């Protein structure tokens, strides 16, 4: 992350810059708001740590100005003032996070990590579950769940279907191997097991919805990588 620390206390600024640089961030330390215009390409900054009690332009004023001109920059206010009204003003002026001094370096870094996740969420395809046909598995963000051939065939058929919905008889045909006749009960057992496997990768909904007197519909976004 590209971070700017605006703090007029020299020792505190230097310690903060060194600590965050040690975490792998690119960090610049400034002693006042007036020093900020001297920095080039300010739009590439990801997060700013702003002390409120600055010489010259106040931290409140700077926060409001940055939020107006660069709405995508994350702003963390760091202040010794612990009053609720003061915190409210900080958020009203555009702060994303308000930390009170003395804030530990671990707390500051945790705030930066939390804010960075909001500013730069993982790409959509990284958040989605992937169906890997060759390995017969579901994968999401480094996690993998094995599937059997019937489970893989069911998912593939639902993904190809209009509205990702199929009738019961269509799904029974998908899993039929010509040697065994599968019943509605056995299909339901298979669906329940498949739901659990999909849900184990993290879902906020029922991944396969049962449609009364019709069949089933896949509700969880799943992609098949090329």
UniProtKB/TrEMBL annotation:
Domain of life: Bacteria
Keywords on record: DNA-binding, Phosphoprotein, Transcription, Transcription regulation, Two-component regulatory system
GO biological process entries: regulation of DNA-templated transcription
SMART domains: REC, Trans_reg_C
Pfam families: Response_reg, Trans_reg_C
One MF annotation (Gene Ontology) recorded for this entry: phosphorelay response regulator activity
GO cellular component: cytosol; protein-DNA complex
Domain OmpR/PhoB-type: 121-220
DNA-binding region: 121-220
Positions of modified residues (4-aspartylphosphate): 51
Transcription regulation keyword on record: yes
Gene3D superfamilies referenced in this protein's UniProt entry, alphabetically: 3.40.50.2300, Winged helix-like DNA-binding domain superfamily/Winged helix DNA-binding domain
Residue ranges occupied by any Response regulatory domain in the UniProt entry: 2-116
InterPro entries xref list: CheY-like_superfamily, OmpR/PhoB-type_DNA-bd, Sig_transdc_resp-reg_C-effctor, Sig_transdc_resp-reg_receiver, WalR-like, WH-like_DNA-bd_sf
Protein name per its UniProtKB record: Two component transcriptional regulator, winged helix family
Species of provenance: Methylobacillus flagellatus (strain ATCC 51484 / DSM 6875 / VKM B-1610 / KT)
């Amino acid at each position: 992350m590209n971070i700017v620390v605006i703090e007029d206390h020299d020792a505190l600024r230097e310690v903060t810059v060194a600590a965050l640089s040690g975490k792998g961030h690119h960090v610049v330390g400034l002693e006042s708001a007036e020093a900020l215009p001297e920095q080039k390409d300010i739009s590439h900054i990801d997060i700013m740590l702003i002390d409120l009690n600055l010489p010259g332009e106040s931290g409140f004023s700077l926060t409001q100005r940055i939020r107006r001109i660069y709405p995508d920059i994350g702003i963390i206010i760091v202040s010794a003032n612990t009053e609720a009204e003061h915190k409210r003003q900080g958020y009203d002026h555009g702060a994303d996070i308000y930390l009170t001094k003395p804030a530990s370096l671990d707390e500051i870094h945790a705030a930066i990590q939390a804010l960075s996740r909001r500013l730069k969420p993982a790409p959509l395809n990284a958040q989605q579950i992937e169906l890997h046909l060759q390995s017969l598995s579901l994968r999401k963000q480094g996690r993998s769940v094995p599937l059997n051939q019937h489970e893989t065939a069911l998912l593939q058929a639902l993904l190809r279907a209009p509205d990702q919905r199929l009738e019961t008889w269509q799904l029974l045909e998908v899993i039929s191997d010509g040697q065994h006749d599968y019943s509605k009960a056995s299909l339901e057992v298979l669906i329940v097991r498949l739901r659990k496997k999909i849900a184990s990768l993290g879902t906020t909904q029922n991944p396969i919805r049962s449609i009364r007197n019709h069949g089933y519909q896949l509700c969880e976004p799943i992609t098949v990588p090329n």
